[in-house]
Structure formats: C-alpha cells, structure tokens
Design brief:
Layout lengths: L2 H13 L3 E5 H8 L7 E7 L5 H7 L5 E2 L2 H10 L2 E6 L5 E6 L4 H9 L1 E6 L2 E5 L2 H14 L3 H13 L6 H11 L2 H8 L8
Helix pairs in contact: 2-6, 2-7, 3-4, 6-7, 6-8, 7-9, 8-9
C-alpha cells in the first residue's frame, strides 16, 4: 500500500469525526512483523445520518465511494470500500456491529504515529492479534496466522495474556492463540 494513500485516507476519515479503529495488516505491521499489503481495514461506527458526510469527505476525482453502498453497509452491518482511482489502493470499512469484541476493540484503541506525520487510532496489539485469529477461522489463511504470531513475537512480554486468553476462549480460538504465542506460523529465515 502506498503511504500517501494511507495518509490522505486517514485525514479524510478523521475529518468526518467518525469513531474508528485501524485493524488488519496495517495494524499488524505496526505491532508485529511488517509485510506488503494492498489495503487498509478499518472498523468504523456510522449511522445513516453520517452517510452523506462520509460520502462528501471522499467525493473527489481521486476517490471512488458509493453512497448507496455505505447506506447498505450501515443498515446491514457490512463493509464498504473507498478506492483511490489513481493507484487502485483501497480501504475496506467494516461498519461496527454492537458485539462485545467490537466494543472492547474500539474502547481499547490507541492513538499512535502510524507513519511519520500520520497519527491514527489503531487496535491494541491484543485486539489486532485476536482479530487475525478470528479472520483465520472465517477464511483460513497462513498469512493471518503469521501476522498473529508476528505480533506475539514482537510484543512478547507486553501483551495482556489474561485478556487474550479470555477473548480467545469466547471466540473459539484458544488453540490458535497458544500456537501464535509459541511462534507457530512464523516463517523461519
């Protein structure tokens, strides 16, 4: 992903005043072992009243965003995209459901310097790791497991293990968590 896209996307998103948290590979790159990624994943809290504001924030020749897709995503608790028409870079914005994990992740988010001169709200290392494990159960991927193990390795000694194990038990990912904490999934170099 191009850093310019991430920077301008986050500036536009912040201008909407929406509650959000960066997750996915961008967040796991921040907390763990960096790898190439082509999109940014964001959990965002939006109401139908905010749809036109979000559409306006990204309405330019540079971005493609569909107001009807945003409305559907808000109504159905799904995802919509913002696409940079120049580069093809994209952001997947997942409208937060009211589930307890999303609520915890939003409350525990951290304001960090994601890039030089770019401050943003990013999921905590624990929440990003747990998110990766859940995504692996939805769409099995060695990449998700490697990202989770990378966070565990880089953040070793700094993770809230009680929090991780409580949520992993609730999400049915306890064994995957223990594997990640042991480094299983990391490629040897």
């Amino acid at each position: 992903m191009q850093q310019e896209f991430l920077k301008t996307f986050l500036e536009h998103l912040e201008a909407t005043g929406s509650l959000y948290v960066v997750t996915g590979s961008v967040a796991s790159n921040f907390w763990g072992i960096p790898r190439l990624t082509h999109d940014v994943d964001v959990v965002v809290v939006l109401s139908l009243n905010q749809v036109s504001q979000v559409t306006a924030a990204f309405s330019s020749d540079r971005y493609y965003v569909s107001e009807s897709a945003i409305r559907e995503a808000v109504r159905d608790g799904r995802m919509f995209n913002v696409i940079d028409s120049r580069t093809g870079d994209k952001a997947d914005l997942w409208v937060a459901s009211g589930n307890a994990f999303n609520q915890d992740m939003l409350q525990r988010r951290r304001r960090v310097d994601l890039l030089p001169g770019v401050s943003a709200f990013v999921g905590s290392p624990e929440d990003v790791l747990l998110h990766k494990l859940v995504w692996h159960t939805i769409t099995p991927s060695e990449r998700q497991l490697a990202d989770a193990a990378g966070i565990a390795a880089v953040q070793a000694g700094n993770l809230d293990l009680l929090y991780l194990r409580e949520w992993a038990a609730k999400q049915g990912t306890s064994q995957l968590l223990e594997d990640a904490l042991k480094g299983k999934g990391l490629k040897s170099t």
